[in-house]
Amino acid sequence: MEDTLIYNYSGSSSLVKKGALEELFLAQYSEIQKNTDVPCFFWGNVGQPFIVARCLITLSNIVKSSFNLSPFQMALLKDPIVTAGNERLRFEGFSHCAGVYARVDVLPEGLDGEFLENGTTNVDFNQPMIMALGSIRPNENIMLSVGEKEVGLYKEEQKLVERKVPLPVKWIKGLGTVQVYLSESEKRHCFNKIQTQQLFRGMPKGVVKSDYYLIVRGNKPMFSPVKSADAVCVGGIHRLRLLEPLLPYIDYMQVFAHPHMKSATWQLYMGNIRFSFSLSRESWRGFSGEGAVLDSLITDVSDEWIDALDKYAYANQSFNAAALAMEENISLKKVSDLTGRLAAMGMLGYDLDDNGFFYRRLPFKLSRILGLNPRMKNAERLIEEGKVEVLNSNNERTEARVEGTGVHHTVIIEGDKERCTCEWFSKYQGERGPCKHVLAVKKIIST
Questions:
Q1: Cβ contacts of residue 180 below 8 Å, gap of 6+?
Q2: Predicted confidence (pLDDT) per residue in 336-372, tens digit
Q3: Is 211 exposed, middle or buried (0-12, 13-18, 19+ CB in 10 A)?
Q4: Closest CA to 301 of 343, 339, 338
Q5: Are residues 273 and 51 in contact, defined by beta-carbon separation less than 8 angstroms?
Q6: Do the Cβ atoms of 310 and 358 come closer than 8 Å?
Q7: Domains of the chain
Q8: Distance CA 367, CA 373 (A)
Q9: What is the pLDDT of residues 222-244, one digit of tens each?
Q10: Helix axes 303-316, 332-344, angle to 10 degrees
Q11: Alpha-carbon dihedral of residues 362, 30, 370, 375, nearest 10 degrees?
């Protein structure tokens, strides 16, 4: 059971028809509550119900998909996460292998309702819900409710349906990594509807194991197996086919890329709805194992700081690192570490268009989330057992020796460059975050 977190829903999701009106209720679960007096986060009308329904179905298909697991593992379906705040709704989820991340943003202009509370919950996307979404027609009106619209409806009449759903640990770890990668990504291309559809029609068939590159010749975007200057690397390009059902409805598409090509993000725009789709570097590599947030977990941060930043982000529904550094008179490095830690805890997501973090609190206790980084825990164990010896250290270079199983590893840190003689570093060369030996040394010299 180390791979999952088990939780219960207090009610099942449903779509109820009342005459010409259809009301969509999404069941919630949370270990934490900001305001227990509010039975739901948002309820109201959706401006583009047909498009929202298609986006949620596509998101559900992504959540059901996997690109490196067995059919048995793929059968373990998971539920997306929904955030209500800052006058918008955000639905997000991963493929089961955690190598594909997707988010549906319904912007303020696309909603006509009331935000009763800001919050985050896990959405119960059962099969009847998917069938109901699929039956929505373009001109229908639906009311969307996140949480339980009325306490009496589900509690006073005791219409409670308990359902256990496993939430993969890799999702929680992957959320932190994705937000770090998104915050470092840069916009590379913007394509209109025709260009986007032409691009997807030229996608190679079947499962593609080698890298492909997004290039633009003249005014025409295309995928090429040959690397060229300014090309965007796309690993596991066949995963992009998950977006094909949405292409008839888009206005345009933008492409964002990580500077070191650790991820590529494809953002579709449909009126007041955005669909973000991020791919990990390879189809067999999930975001959860990339270790992008480990460096930010090295420096200890007091619970008081975390609680204060949590309240700050909750009140503002955003997190501006530069503004916080100026207001609190702390270094940008400190704020960067704090941002990474908050993202690792699931408190922050990243909006590419707003170029900033938004508040998203996963419905789990912080102690549960902080215990999900085995490399950091192993690094702390090495320190506790006295297996780390710093041979010499100054502002430019640190050399240390770390005791392993029947062998001693040498760690050298020079500025932003770090090396270790262990197998992990030899295999990944730092591309998937620091090894436990480097983490242990960096934690010691940071104190």
A1: 292, 293, 340, 343
A2: 777 777 777 777 889 999 888 888 876 555 555 556 6
A3: middle
A4: 338
A5: yes
A6: no
A7: 4-92+101-167 (3.10.150), 374-446 (no CATH)
A8: 12
A9: 999 998 888 999 999 999 999 99
A10: 80
A11: -80
C-alpha span between 199 and 207 (Å, rounded): 17
| pTM reported for the whole predicted model | 0.79
What value, to the nearest 5°, has the Cα angle with vertex 114 and ends 112 and 118? 125
Category of 286 on φ-ψ map: left (φ > 0), alpha (ψ -120 to 50) or beta = beta
Q: Are 337 and 296 in contact (CB under 8 A)?
A: yes
Query: In Å, how far from its chain's centre is CA 313?
Result: 17
* Alpha-carbon gap, residue 246 to 276, rounded angstroms: 12
Let me know: does 422 contact 409? Beta carbons within 8 Å.
yes
Beta carbons of 66 and 168 less than 8 angstroms apart: no
Confidence of residue 375 (pLDDT cuts 50, 70, 90): confident
Amino acid found at 310: D
